Amino acid sequence: MTRLNLAILISGRGSNMEAILEAAQDPAYPAKPVLVLSNRPDAKGLETARAAGIATAAIDHKTYGKDREAFERVVHEQLTEAGVEIIALAGFMRVLTPWFVNKWQGRMVNIHPSLLPKYKGLDTHQRALDAGDTEAGCTVHWVSPGVDDGEIIQQASLPILPGDTADSLAARLLPVEHQLYPEALSKACADIQTRA
Ligand code: GRF
């Protein structure tokens, strides 16, 4: 089995990244992490990745002002140089332009903390609570030019409990995300290999 070279893009804590790195320690896991890249040089996840022996890159989007594509051209260059074959967005807080998304179409996945198609964008848990939903969850999906809009790969849900707040829900959902993401990423790799 050939393992696909994986880049994980983060902006902060990187706990989903960590879950993927752990899963990928198994030589039978279908993706091999070759790069962790952050748009924020101070992202805590960069330290975690370095400690795990993974190459890291920090490309500060602020350097490029409003020119999103200029930032993305540098990201794209780094990914290409590292021989990346699949990208996992894991708490990466930059909206990507159609230019970048089209370059990686069918090779980039994201985790979103809602049961898509519900609650695209931010404040997903508060919106689920405000709507009186009885369950919340997370979704791993292919990235398409629309925000949180691509084809769903896999979802996991959990019940909303009386007294839940956006914070308590986010905290209970996090371990569910950590279980889901490596599994769904593995499916995505299988899909790419089938297409090849
Ligand atoms: C997760 O809740 C993820 O669903 C969302 O951002 C958060 C990232 O957390 N997209 P972490 O950086 O993986 O710890």
Overall morphology: globular
CATH class: Alpha Beta
Spatial separation of the terminal alpha carbons = 13 Å
Give helix and strand order, one letter per element, not per position: EHEHEHEHEHEEH
Number of domains: 1
> Percentage of helical residues?
25-40%
CATH architectural label: 3-Layer(aba) Sandwich
Spell out the CATH superfamily.
Formyl transferase, N-terminal domain
Radius of gyration: 16 Å
Structural class: alpha/beta
Count of DSSP-assigned helices: 6
Task: Explain what you see.
The chain is an alpha/beta fold. It is 38% helix and 22% strand. It has a single domain, classed as Formyl transferase, N-terminal domain (Rossmann fold), CATH 3.40.50. It has helices spanning 15-23, 44-51, 68-81, 98-103, 124-130, 166-195, and strands at residues 4-10, 31-38, 56-58, 86-89, 108-112, 135-142, 152-159. Strands 3-2-1-4-5-6-7 form a seven-stranded mixed beta sheet, sandwiched between helices. Bound molecules: 5-O-phosphono-beta-D-ribofuranosylamine. 5-O-phosphono-beta-D-ribofuranosylamine binds next to helix 1 and strand 5.
